[in-house]
Amino acid sequence: MNVALPTGAGGLTRRVNLLAAERVALFANLNLLERIPKVNGFPSLQPREQDDIEALLYRSPGTEYPALMDFLGVSVVSTRSNILDWTSRTTALRLITAGQKPVFLETSNILPALASSEFRPRDEVYFPRELESKITVRNSSVVKVESKRVTAHRIEADTTASEPAMLVIAQTFYHQWQAMIDGHLGESRSMVEEERLGQDEQRVGLRPRDRGEDAIDLRRRA
Fold first, then answer.
1. Same domain, 82 and 123
2. Does 55 lie in the same domain as 33?
3. Is the separation of the CB atoms in 28 and 22 below 8 Å?
4. Among 159, 161, 198, 200, which residue's Cα sits nearest to residue 181?
5. Which long-range contacts link 82-86 to residues 24+ away (Cβ below 8 Å)?
6. Domain end: 88, 123, 142, which one?
7. Residue 216 domain-assigned?
8. 108, 210: one domain
9. Are residues 172 and 116 in the same domain?
10. For the chain, how big is the Rg over CA atoms in Å?
11. How many domains does the chain have?
């Protein structure tokens, strides 16, 4: 493989300065060096649903999607005029939310719904219509969520609810994630339900016991 390198001190200085600017701007996957999460990245393979979300946010100049950005947990954004100028957002949601009302749509309508100004990620979560018969929750509910640990391969949280409810995780679905509630594996569908959402999310159906408390443990299997 041939690699072209800048020649002379001037060329090397320009490249170093460019890399420094790219690192400050968290360009491509340089955010990993700073351990700062961001919506996009520089993956060699990309799920279609995640690419659809990225296309909405980055390939539509002049268009804002505040509700979708809230759902994705975007707390800081760069300005359009200066990628090194960061602005805080105070409405971003946490990675794990709960209590939303399931809304069933045709799959082709979910992405436009996420982009709509009518999207209310605190109150509703979208599902493909073909999953309607598998989901028993029909209304919104009050759920207390305490996030305990979030790592690349494991997510743990404690929940308190008085009735069956939805728990939503704003990350790209991957089939190797397995949900456990109070130590019960996902194979026991009477206790745990985990489905792929219409776009870029995972959800777990909570079926609280008499005490109303559950320990949620999602692990990514090898």
1. no
2. yes
3. yes
4. 159
5. 83/25, 84/21, 84/24, 84/25
6. 88
7. yes
8. yes
9. yes
10. 20
11. 2
Contact 135, 203 (CB under 8 A): no
Q: Residue ranges of the chain with pLDDT lower than 50?
A: 1-3, 186-198, 210-211
Amino acid at 72: L
pTM of the full predicted structure?
0.80
Residue type, 38: K
Q: Domain limits at 45?
A: 15-88
> Please, what is the angle between helix 48-58 and helix 107-115, to 10°?
30
- Nearest in space to 159 (alpha carbons), one of 192, 116, 126, 115: 192
Residues 159/145, Cβ–Cβ less than 8 Å: yes
As given in the structure block, the two tokens for residue 211 are 């005490």
Q: What is the pLDDT of residue 13?
A: 85
Q: Is 116 in contact with 109 (CB distance < 8 Å)?
A: no
Q: Are residues 22 and 101 in the same domain?
A: no
The answer to whether residues 220 and 195 touch, using CB atoms and an 8 Å cutoff, is no
pLDDT in tens, 118-175: 999 999 999 999 989 988 899 999 999 987 788 888 889 998 988 888 889 888 877 7
The DSSP bridge partners found for residue 127 are: 104
Please indicate, yes or no, whether residues 103 and 172 belong to a single structural domain of this protein: yes
Measured between alpha carbons, how far is 215 from 158 in angstroms, rounded to an integer? 5
Asked, for residue 4, whether it belongs to a domain, the answer is no
Query: In sequence order, what are the residues at sequence separation of 6 or more whose Cβ sits closer than 8 angstroms to the Cβ of residue 61?
Result: 80
